[in-house]
Amino acid sequence: KKEKEKEKEKKKITMKRLLLCLVIAWSVVAEMTDQQRLEDFYKATFGEGWNIATNWDDESVSICQWYGVYCDNDGNTEQLILNKNNLQGSLPDNIWADWDSLKNFSVAENFIGGSIPNEVGQTTNLIELILSSNHFNGHITNALTQLTRLSVLGLSKLSLDGSIPTEIGNM
Questions:
Q1: Has residue 12 got a pLDDT over 60?
Q2: Tell me, what DSSP letter sits at residue 61?
Q3: In the chain, % of residues over pLDDT 90
Q4: Are strands 77-81 and 69-71 parallel, antiparallel or unpaired?
Q5: In whole angstroms, what is the distance from residue 69 CA to residue 71 CA?
Q6: Which of 76, 73, 51 is nearest to 63 (CA)?
Q7: What is the dihedral of CA 44, 45, 46, 47, to 10 degrees?
Q8: How sure is the predictor about 92, in pLDDT bands with cuts at 50, 70 and 90?
Q9: Domain limits of the chain?
Q10: Of 107, 113, 101, whose CA–CA distance to 129 is shortest?
Q11: Are 44 and 80 in contact (CB under 8 A)?
Q12: b/e per residue 62-89 (b: at least 16 CB within 10 A)
């Protein structure tokens, strides 16, 4: 009987440790900074090949001084505008969640491919999302309907297929 009690206690401790690890892992993910998001974006879109990438590779400079990044008074990224800048690759899916400060994301007339990440729908304060004239493919994700503040959606000159989700017309 004592062996069963010991075994039960070991399982409880193991479960508590597992739960603690999950909580720690979640908090690390939840604390992604604007700088980390922008660095991931830079890597995913082959930033070293951009036409202009002033300060993007200088960690000693505030992100508010990086080319195409516009910040609010608290130093949070409010706009990312990198049109006609030779961006390639694809949009990373890990940068969008809880990016509450971002209001305008514009990367028109570049060479970004792949699908539009579903996670874009988690950037709920977006007012403008301009992806026009790139190489995106696939379908228009229903996740865009989560962007309830969106007033400008630029999806022209893309290789998208399927139909436009009817919910987008209700935004």
A1: yes
A2: S
A3: 74
A4: antiparallel
A5: 7
A6: 76
A7: -110
A8: very high
A9: 1-31, 33-170
A10: 107
A11: no
A12: ebeebebbebeeeeebbbbbbeebbbbb
